[in-house]
Amino acid sequence: MILRNKHIVVTGGAGFIGSHLVDALIKENPEKITVMSNFFVGSKNNLARAEDTFPSLEILNQDITKYEEVEDYFKNNSVDTVFNLAVIPIVTSLTEPAWTFKNNVEMSSVFCELLRKDYFKKLVQFSSSEVYGTAKYVPMDENHPLNPETPYAASKAATDHLALSYFRTFGSDISLVRPFNNYGPRQSATKFVGLVPGTILRAMKDENVIIQGDGEQTRDYIFVEDTAEGAIKVAKSNNTKGKAINIATGREISIGNIVNEILNNFDYNGKIVHTEARLGDVRRHLAKIDLARDLIDFEAKTSLSEGMKKTVDWYKKNISL
Q: Which domains are assigned to the chain?
């Protein structure tokens, strides 16, 4: 499978991971890239570099739950591959659980149906490590039970099952990318702010840093550019059809140590303050990455210290306090 000279659609392509995927896809020399986003999470600013370097980038303000509108686009355009990253995030699911679940499932259903009807050839569906819930065993392979602990995670587990059912029932060419915790430039610093950008911003302002819970929760953090590379490898491989594949580092780190890694990039004089744990917060995550190694020869390249320095430097350069 090649992406050169192909028309690629990236839903959620104005978001954090999506915009980095667009940057990486440009290097594959496609004919055209179309980003579909309603900008609920993403920002057109995230695509500024892509717009400068790739004249054939099309950015559509599109609610992809509207099946007929999306179908009309595919009727009039010859699309090869779709990367579906569009999502309502975990934080929203804590206040709008039913709406989050409904929208996440509907967005995935639209592209499963379009693929079944041969409007395009391959779907790379983005999952989430949140579908596993707290680890029952480590490292967590792709056969780990799905025990979602939030409505967001439940919606992602549902879309995983939905996508794989289209593969099993209709033979649709669908692969699942299951990324663990991503960090890097462009993660939102204004809405749905995650641990890494939130900590960076507080350190930049020399404010107290907040850790929800005791900080002993663990994650498998991966630099966003490595995730984009993994997703492209999944799309280009003939070995990934009908499979879910963990994209991660295979290394475990506590939330407390992540915060320390961030603060190593600052002359920081504030305090670290612990608050109540977040609702539905998983306790332990560590990915087994053997399948990614075996099927797509994937290995995360960026060390945590290198990736965090790049991340902090980007926020210092691009965020005005």
A: 7-182+222-250 (3.40.50.720)
Q: If we measure between CA atoms, which residue out of 146, 122, 153 comes closest to residue 240?
A: 122
Question: CA nearest 65: which of 101, 26, 93, 27?
Answer: 101
pTM above 0.90, yes or no: yes
Cβ atoms < 10 Å from Cβ of 47: 25
Please give the chain's pLDDT, 321 residues, in tens. Answer: 799 999 999 999 999 999 999 999 999 999 999 999 999 999 999 999 999 999 999 999 999 999 999 999 999 999 999 999 999 999 999 999 999 999 999 999 999 999 999 999 999 999 999 999 999 999 999 999 999 999 999 999 999 999 999 999 999 999 999 999 999 999 998 877 899 999 999 999 999 999 999 999 999 999 999 999 999 999 999 999 999 999 999 999 999 999 999 999 999 989 999 999 999 999 999 999 999 999 999 999 999 999 999 999 999 999 987
Burial class of 256 by CB neighbour count within 10 A (0 to 12, 13 to 18, 19+): middle
For 57, the enclosing helix (H) or strand (E) is: strand 57-61
Q: 162 is written with which tokens?
A: 């939905």
Distance of CA 258 to the CA centre of its chain: 19
Q: What DSSP string runs through 117-184?
A: TTSSSEEEEE--GGGG-S-SSSSB-TTS-----SHHHHHHHHHHHHHHHHHHHH---EEEEEE-EEE-
Angle at CA of residue 70, ends 64 and 73, nearest 5°: 140
Helix (H) or strand (E) holding 8: strand 7-11
Beta-strand relationship, 57-61 and 221-223: unpaired
> How far apart (Å, rounded) are the C-alpha atoms in residues 116 and 166?
8
d(CA 15, CA 21): 10
| Cβ proximity of 224 and 16 under 8 Å | yes
Q: Which two tokens stand for residue 133?
A: 């819930």
